[in-house]
Design a protein that fits this description.
By secondary structure, this protein is of the alpha+beta class. This is FAD-binding PCMH-type domain-containing protein.
Amino acid sequence: MGAEQSTVEDDSQPATEIKKLTEVKFHLQGVEHVAKSENITPNTSLNFYLRNILKMTGTKAMCLEGGCGACLVVLQNKDPITQKDVFLAVNSCLIPLLSCNGWKIFTIEGIGNSVEGFHPLQEVLARFNGTQCGFCSPGMVMNMYALYESGKLTMQQVENSFSGNTCRCTGYRSILTAFKSLCTDADFGILRECPDVEDLVSCYKERCARKCSTDCNNVSKEPFLLELGEIRWIKVHSLKDLLRTLRINPQATYRLVAGNTAQGVYRSYKDTVDLYIDVTEVPELKDYKIQGDTCMVGGNITLTIAIEFFNEVAKSYPSFSYLKAVADHIDLVANVPVRNRATIAGNLIIKHDHHDFPSDIFLILETVGATITLVNVSGQETNISPIDFINCDLRKEPLVIKTINLPSFPTTFKYISYKIMPRAQNVHALVNAGFVFKFDNSGLLQSATIVYGNISVPFVHANVTERLLAGKNLFDNSVLQQVYTSLTNELDPDVRPPDPSPEFRKKLAISLFYKAVLSIAPSDKMASKNKSGGAVLQRPISTGSQDYEYNKQKYPWTSEIPKLGALSQTSGETKYVIDLPDLPFQLYGALVLAKAPANSVIRKINPDGALGREDIVAFYSKDDIPGDNVFTILTPLTTSEEQLFCDGRVRYYDQPIGILVGKSQEALENAVSLVLVTYDSPNVEPLLTSRQVVKEGRTDRITQYKKNDATRRGNDVKHVVKGSFDIYQQYHFHMENQCCQAIPEDKGLLVYASTQWMDLVQCAISRVLGIPESQITVMVRHCGGAFGGKITRASLIACATALAAYKLKKPVKMWLPLTTNMTAIGKRFPLSTDYEVGLDDNGVFQYANVTHYTDVGSQFDEDISPWFEQIFQTIYTSDTFTTSYNRVVTDTATNTWTRAPGSVEGLAAIESIMEHCSYASGIDPIQIRTANFSNQTPILTYMNDMKTWANIDKRKADIATFNKENRWKKKGLAVIPMSFDVLLLGPHLATVSIFHGDGSVQISHGGIEVGQGINTKAAQVCAYKFGIPLEKVTILPSHNFISPNNLATGGTIATDGVTYGIVQACDTLLERMKPYRTEGAKWEDIVKTSHDNFVVLKASGLYTPSQPGLGNYRVYGVCAAEVIVDILTGQHIVTRVDLTEDTGISMNPILDVGQAEGALIMGLGYQTTEKIVFSYEGKVLTNNTWTYYPPGAKDIPVEFNVKFPKDNPNPVGVLKSKGTGEPAITLAIAIPLAIRNALASARKDADQSNPPWYRINGTTDVENVLLHTLSDPSQYVL
């Protein structure tokens, strides 16, 4: 504790009068808006108000944690020093509406739209094909809008600023390229893609100048009070008023409100208190300056301002040069929109309240020896260390963090800090570390500060090791070995799933100390091969190329046409199911989940606690279902009937047991936990993986569904390779959560479902309600992403919603929160494989004995075997393979189709086997593959082309040289082939109508637009067939009356099916109009004449697997992936990917490029960052954006090249094309194999006797990599 100073409170001065308000005023799109307090609670977010009160649905809602970026809006305010306008992107889901008084807010609707004109950002994102499903697009635009309005931009700024925006569809490359085209340093290659970018910008500026000729009126910034029942919200504008407010309310529970970003991590901050005090405008808490040898920053400055200020100070003051490294570290905290609101004090308070929070701010301040100035209600100031602050009792008396005081450092001080994360940005630390080394004039250490985060809850300083180092030579290997021994004894990480293992965290912490020493060691004291170990991985600006052909003579077919509806998506005008307007008497639904492990038995469900609330209407369980308790039915694609609600025996943790219905989503979220369920505990522990089932000998859960016996066996066995392979679940992470709106009609229901399969929704609802299918109408305009997750799983949501609507005779809307999506819904099928392979000296397989176990979850329903079997044994000669295929039932949610189901797992398994065989035999990986290629495919041609195009041989040689010269950085390369079967499935129906007045055309089809561009290709084909402009064609929503009995959209086949149906329909119509087609006649005249002669100008076409001229086909491809790995941290960067994919004659090359890029990046996430972790009870612990990590914009390849072979028609494809939605995701296995190629060198460096290969066992994430480097502290030398 420091010495107390004089007080800042003077009671002789009158307090500022606080006005009592009944409303909140703010400017929205430049127009004053008033929100009445009776419609607001302290937890009413700006996002909720925009979407649900103002019905401005362009701003989306997804995670409600500040982790996805769908909800971004922009705040405009004045810089207090420069008085320049500052534009900040912020997460509207985390901003209390009550904080918005006096703010200027812009949403996607306000910056551009179809009525007043689109903003250049909206246009350029659409033109560069930077939108697919479109759900993330408004957030992307608003994030860029804040940058765009802030002044001249560089490409580096753009690349670094999208950490808070998640896109599951595009793979980010097209988004970044679009926005980089507006930068001052945009290169010619980018500008060439959209040559009229400058015209877009200049036109907008003229329009904007006219629109913004008058400024917004200023709202008073005086203190105010809002009374919300017994809760009070006070905004203060001075420290004096803040302290007085606290002093005169000694008994009140209170919360100081600034950024409010803590709610994104800990939902407990949503618990209401008596008094909320908004401190965002207290100048004493926002000051920052250099005062003597101290850098003082107010507790309430945002992390963004801290970064800017620290960078400025570091340039101007040599004694504070270390603040550049501090700024770089803070730049890794959260994401840009969160940093724009999050404050230093707020971050410290989270650490105070939750010691397990791995706060980087706390770590930095404790490392540098900063002090925190606290002020009590009497104005007395106390200086305290960060570690003392987090351990002080704030319940005894209110204390306000006034300033944080950072010391100056002489040149003899060295500061280094690290944050090691599972992806490049927007995630908390696996381990963070801070070091300060103070040297004397002789070069010996006077003292050392060693601080670690996320080791264990109480651990902060490595005190023993700090004392050990006093007076020592840091650059002495014997001293370093003493340090490692000390740290090994001192570090005792706790077990805290889903955080990584204690073994990993200890190993990483020790290696970070070594890394810090390497970063400051004199060059002459280090071996040259160790020098690169001191540097962190640096990522250059990403680039890419797209190589394809298109035929302008066949316009608009085969042309580079941006996706229809792209501008609607980028402007926020596209309406998804959750955006549909509320209807009179609108109700909402929420699933109630079983909070018990599998095999528990439900004894009683008591909803009275929830139903006793005024805003809760009903609860329904299995006992309230008038028909059958199912949400799937028997079809060619589904093999069993799954329960809608648990029938008594719990099949998996978080299985739905009922639906709670209320008057608002907010009311339901607060009431779901009040449904009390009593269980009988299970007498067995849950079995969560196939390996557990096999180990326990539960043969009743294992079904061998197929066995392929070898037809021959070679006798030249020189190498025998045995191994295993395991890969686990992947969550779909569609940006639009599962949702549905069901509306009662005279005799049935109108259902707006976010589904990939209208027919299943219709049939399943019919079964649940016991009414004819003809009384159920299903409409789907589009889905905000799906990836297979909305084929059968959407039926669960639709059936539950329909049940409530049917029984209550009122419209019911259900939207699953992200956590419910991630726990109640199944995921990708895990695969476990055991193998033994015999090879000759050329790498040719003499025999292979393989056993597969596919984890189907709690019930086998969806059959992925055709795709799995094909891809595993087609690309290579497999007549020597004896393969056993097994399904295993586990106690997890029934697994479901996920992009390229079976194919992803199958290719990963066979390529893992090939790679293992290569390392075990010493035969080159490409050679061993080509030696076993089937002569029934052209894959060798593709492989040879890749070797030339991507300069593989030279790069392999360069990598070998690099690895020889560097001990702690390693490069790796893997080249993976693919043969992906597209199986004909149907039916797919399409209907085309021509209107006689102007010759325009409407299409409705049974496919579902999920971002893949099915509507765009449908319109292109139709326009081409009729020879009319594309603008004449309109696509209607999918409707089960127009397209009844249609198969699901999935399997890469829906676009084929729909476009084939359109060709049929167009041919039928052209034949009907043939008598009235005369040479030179205009289309409009032909249509009118046909109509006058009573020609039916409507026709349908049906695609089925038996159509002549069509057949199953294969998509071939090759991917070369190169990585660089930091052996001391386990982190990596994908430095280059070259991808070639066989697309036949592409109907739309830029859409197909987008599909290929997006698929590969989704696969990259599956292979390297996305990991599902269960508790021992089977509860999913990785159920939000804080714990589950799809890749971000800086995780994609630095260089991303895509090529489609030219002059390559598909003889059995629709219009000679091939599907592109799924194949490329399978090739992402190249990335973990490239990482293993890099680690092979490191493992040999550690000990030549080490095996170079280590098996794939789940995600090749940072933990997996570091633990398999086989390095240990004895090797950490200079």
